[in-house]
Write a structure and sequence with these properties.
Blueprint (H helix, E strand, L loop, with lengths): L4 E5 L3 H13 L4 E5 L3 H17 L5 E4 L11 E4 L15 H18 L4 E4 L4 H12 L6 E3 L2 H16 L6 E2 L2 E2 L7 E2 L5 E2 L2 E2 L6 H12 L1 H9 L6 H15 L4 E10 L5 E12 L2 E5 L6 H24 L3
Parallel strand pairs: 1-2, 1-4, 2-3, 4-5, 5-6
Antiparallel strand pairs: 7-10, 8-9, 10-11, 12-13, 13-14
Bound molecules: nicotinamide-adenine-dinucleotide and (2S)-2-hydroxybutanedioic acid.
(2S)-2-hydroxybutanedioic acid binds next to α7.
EC number: 1.1.1.37
Family: Belongs to the LDH/MDH superfamily. MDH type 3 family.
Keywords: NAD, Oxidoreductase, Tricarboxylic acid cycle
Length: 314
């Protein structure tokens, strides 16, 4: 934790919950919070810092007064942007959030050009694309959070279905963080046993559909925004893996450069995370049906990237 500094830009539901989680885990010595809502960010920094002290964690949380306060950040998490509301898809946020994400990148380019970026803002894959294109950073520096969240949701629905194995469920979800995400039942296990050995096709299909709609289910219930506890925890795992060079493998959204047969497009794939950000991309042996589903998902992200190229980067 010595001298490790994490920046969080966008201190709303996800950003503040992430700051709280990181401060309580004590995995970095400093957290700096940046948001356009200046009073809120000051209040959040004080409150979270004080809660860390109560927990005897020595993480100090401060508000950023300007971009210069991002200096020295090892990792910057971007959670700035609008969340969707009922009746919206994540893709409806495309141009609004591209503007926000690329505007916050300006400070990062100046003050923390060597930091690793974890992108959370939606539509996730298109925002990773936006961050890479507007920063000019190498692809290993810019990583999107979604796969850990989607896999956690899948594990939740598996547990609901089978009724045992809590804490022993590993799930795998690939592709974009959208309606076409690709849950992989044959790479998902309960205590090491693959899902197709335990559940019927119908039960598995049900889990797959629930996983795809996991975000929407919460948006409909909350009415004012989207999920944040699971997203924040998922992001904290990525922060930890990079800061501590853990070389753990997590599903993350990254710019593909030939992997799985795609390039210059972002997709969710298993990635080894370490101090260089992306250490390695793992290529699974997908069957033909999974390859087709992955292609469909990548094509959806390509459509968003094309819109960005036409209407935003042009
Ligand atoms: N990748 C995922 O799996 C995932 C999960 C949950 C949420 N999200 C996305 O993360 C984003 C944030 O969600 P939330 O629930 O925290 O929303 P929120 O509305 O609670 O917080 C967003 C914050 O961004 C801030 N902001 C807006 N423009 C800014 C700018 N230019 N600079 C700095 N801060 C700025 C707002 O002031 C606000 O505090 C949304 O786009 C949401 O869809 C993604
Ligand atoms: O569903 C959303 O809009 C937020 C996020 O992407 C999620 O999956 O919870």
């Amino acid at each position: 934790m010595d001298n490790k500094k994490v920046g969080i830009i966008g201190v709303g539901n996800v950003g503040s919950t992430l700051a709280y989680t990181l401060a309580h885990k004590g995995i970095c010595s400093k957290i700096v919070l940046k948001d356009i809502r200046e009073n809120i960010v000051q209040a959040m920094a004080l409150d979270i810092s004080q809660s860390a002290n109560a927990a005897k964690s020595h993480t100090i949380v401060t508000p950023a007064k300007s971009g210069v306060d991002l200096k020295g950040c090892d990792i910057i998490v971007i959670t700035a942007g609008l969340p969707r509301k009922p009746g919206m898809s994540r893709d409806d946020l495309l141009l609004t959030n591209a503007k926000i994400v690329s505007s916050v990148i300006e400070d990062i380019k100046i003050y923390a050009p060597k930091s690793k970026l974890i992108i959370v803002s939606n539509p996730l894959d298109a925002m990773v694309y936006t961050a890479i294109k507007s920063s000019g950073f190498s692809r290993n520096q810019v990583i999107g959070m979604a796969g850990i969240l989607d896999s956690a949701r899948m594990s939740h629905f598996i547990l609901e279905k089978v009724g045992y194995g809590a804490g022993q469920i590993e799930s795998s979800v690939m592709g974009g963080h959208g309606d076409d995400m690709v849950p992989l039942p044959n790479y998902s296990t309960v205590a090491g046993v693959a899902l197709p050995e335990i559940l019927s096709k119908n039960d598995i299909n049900d889990i797959v559909e629930k996983t795809k709609n996991g975000g929407l289910q919460i948006v409909k219930l909350l009415e004012t925004g989207s999920a944040y506890y699971a997203p924040a925890h998922a992001t904290s795992l990525m922060v930890e893996a990079i800061l501590d060079n853990k070389r753990k493998i997590y599903p993350c959204a990254v710019m593909l450069d030939g992997e799985y047969g795609y390039e210059n497009i972002v997709g969710g794939v298993p990635v080894m995370l370490g101090s260089n950000g992306i250490e390695k991309i793992i290529e699974l042996n997908l069957n033909n049906e999974q390859k087709e589903l992955f292609e469909k998902s990548i094509n959806s992200v390509k459509e968003l990237a094309n819109t960005l190229e036409e209407k935003f980067f042009n």
